[in-house]
Design goal:
Blueprint lengths: L1 H36 L1 H15 L3 H12 L3 H28 L2 H8 L4 H9 L4 H24 L11 H8 L8 H28 L10
Helix pairs in contact: 1-2, 1-4, 1-7, 3-4, 4-7, 7-8, 7-9, 8-9
Length: 215
């Protein structure tokens, strides 16, 4: 049990980090472009984003993973598609706020290109927010991956994953409840630890995801 817990933590953490980084990258790029260019690009973004946010996240993940088929590929795709909008909306709002700053207007007047402004002057100001968002979303990714793997749509046995261990032990929860409790406690403690790190980073950077910023 100890060996499976140690080896299973590797799969859980690595796949969760991969899903979070891809979702952050996709959502960050789309949010920056929509917030910087505005007008038509922003309107198209809002329509496209509202379509995704109008679908319940759990249902969307199960549908994508079920259509793709069991495995890590469908698991990553399902988590990324259901999570990128959460990153993009917040980053878009921050880019709109930064876009209105005086030094950005000065760079535009001096003839600086859009890509230079975005990657050299706007993106560095978003690193703290992106770090906080990524840490906070990492816990959700772990729970999403655990849920899909428990349903048989994610990591497949005999891979030593915590959610797979819970699924394999459900038939023995009365005679040997520790087979379910130990990996379940592992998921709970890991998610709680990551959430605490996210809250600490939030205080360090002086930013809160529920803070209302003018656009």
């Amino acid at each position: 049990m100890l060996s499976r817990m140690i080896l299973g933590s590797r799969n859980t953490i690595i796949i969760s980090l991969l899903c979070t980084l891809i979702a952050l990258m996709v959502g960050g790029i789309i949010g920056m472009l929509a917030g910087y260019y505005g007008k038509t690009a922003d309107k198209l973004y809002n329509i496209f984003c509202n379509i995704f946010q109008g679908i319940p996240g759990s249902c969307l993940m199960i549908a994508i993973a079920g259509f793709w088929g069991p495995g890590i590929g469908g698991l990553v795709l399902a988590v990324v598609i259901s999570n990128w909008t959460g990153f993009s909306r917040i980053i878009r709002a921050e880019v709109i706020r930064i876009r209105q700053a005086g030094y950005i207007e000065g760079l535009i007047c001096l003839g600086a290109g859009d890509m230079r402004i975005i990657f050299h002057h706007i993106l560095p100001n978003l690193r703290g927010i992106m770090l906080v968002l990524g840490t906070q979303r990492l816990g959700r990714s772990i729970l999403s991956i655990a849920g899909l793997s428990f349903l048989g749509l994610g990591i497949q046995p005999p891979a030593p994953d915590w959610s797979v261990m819970i699924n394999d032990s459900m038939l023995y929860y009365r005679s040997a409840p520790y087979l379910v409790l130990i990996p379940g406690c592992g998921i709970f403690l890991l998610v709680s630890s990551i959430n605490n790190i996210g809250k600490h980073l939030e205080r360090c950077f002086g930013w809160h995801k529920n803070e209302v910023r003018p656009e």
